[in-house]
Design a protein that fits this description.
Blueprint: H1 4-16, H2 23-28, E1 30-32, E2 37-40, E3 53-57, E4 62-65, H3 71-84, E5 89-93, H4 99-102, H5 105-111, E6 116-120, H6 121-125, H7 127-151, H8 160-177, E7 187-189, E8 192-196, E9 201-207, E10 214-219, E11 224-228, H9 242-253, E12 260-263, H10 273-290, H11 296-302, H12 306-311, H13 315-334
Parallel strand pairs: 4-5, 5-6, 6-7, 11-12
Antiparallel strand pairs: 1-2, 2-3, 3-4, 8-9, 9-10, 10-11
């Protein structure tokens, strides 16, 4: 998802992270969903501004679904794959265009140049914009490093060497990433794409819900759904097609097949959890429709407080929830 709060926090995290994630850390965050599906769930403090990743392995090929917006984390993922993956990484799937799902693909593409990037057709049609977004992200990162060097002199003298080392490491990472490019998709999905990874068939479907260019992936006879941000428990509605999104969630929730659902953010969910996401989006649309005289601030203040009670569980969600709500209300007003 993309907004000023999330972009600021992610840039700050990148600059002050210090060292690359260790291989042991990368191993620890991968969960085995099935013999063929591994799930990388972001830690709780990153869950609203960086994405989960999913690795799918067949007998002949592997597929990576989404890439972190933290390029250091993507490099740690590459190290993990180099140590554990026994088949070629043939496909990279970007669920949609938000930075924390797409831009890290540049790192994966550098290390796996034969892997084919798969996106929604609408994303592919405007790919030049997202190549520029990668360059813009690096420019922002460079500015943050330069500003941090300027502020270094204000640090206590005993702390300056450690901070200087961290910033030099960040500078070296930036120089490396500036050599990469975000290469255009090899496959664009308009409706549906079927692939076989080697005795392991999957289906990738195109939607317009969370954005106008979403992909979801079904595996293991539809018992595993990799849904990206469409199925997030707390959905970010800022770029959504809210009516179509609600209809899709209704359709997914009516499924009688027992499913493991892997979202773009947060822990695995169940079909029942989709009802909460649907209720939130419905409440946003209905609140805007029922109060046409209210401005954005008034709409946010008068919005049903039950959702805040349900969604705010810690300091991170207390910061994220009002931003998500405001983005949804604004989107609903624009869509009237």
């Amino acid at each position: 998802m993309t907004n000023n709060f999330l972009s600021f926090r992610l840039t700050r995290f990148l600059v002050f992270a210090g060292t690359l994630l260790s291989i042991s850390q990368a191993h620890a965050q991968w969960q085995k969903i099935s013999n063929h599906v591994d799930f990388f769930q972001q830690s709780a403090n990153l869950r609203f501004y960086d994405s989960n990743q999913i690795l799918i392995k067949g007998d002949n090929c592997a597929l990576m679904f989404d890439a972190s917006g933290n390029f250091s984390a993507v490099e740690a993922t590459v190290k993990h794959l180099k140590h554990t993956l026994k088949v070629p990484l043939c496909y990279l799937v970007a669920s949609h265009f938000h930075d924390d799902h797409l831009l890290g693909m540049a790192v994966l593409q550098h290390h796996y140049p034969n892997a084919k990037l798969i996106t929604h057709q609408k994303l592919a049609a405007n790919f030049a914009d997202f190549k520029q977004a990668y360059n813009n992200k690096l420019e922002t990162y460079q500015q943050s490093i330069e500003l941090s060097f300027q502020r270094l002199a204000k640090q206590p003298k005993e702390k300056q060497p450690a901070w200087r080392d961290k910033l030099e490491l960040a500078k070296n990472r930036l120089l490396r990433w500036q050599e990469y490019t975000l290469k255009p998709p090899a496959l664009a999905v308009t409706d549906s794409l079927a692939l076989d990874l080697g005795n392991y068939p999957i289906t990738i479907n195109a939607y317009q819900a969370h954005t106008n260019a979403d992909l979801m992936l079904y595996a293991e006879q539809q018992t595993i759904l990799i849904g990206g941000d469409i199925v997030d428990y707390l959905p970010y509605p800022g770029h959504g097609n809210l009516t179509d999104w609600r209809e899709l969630l209704t359709e997914l929730a009516a499924n009688t097949i027992e499913q493991t659902i892997l979202p773009g953010h947060g822990e695995p969910i169940t079909i029942k959890d989709l009802q909460q996401s649907h209720a939130f989006l419905t409440a946003i649309q209905e609140h805007v429709q029922n109060n046409p005289e209210q401005d954005l601030t008034q709409l946010q203040q008068s919005f049903n407080k039950q959702f805040a009670n349900q969604y705010i569980t810690d300091d991170i969600s207390a910061k994220a929830y009002p931003i998500f709500l405001q983005a949804g209300l604004k989107r609903a007003k624009q869509s009237k």
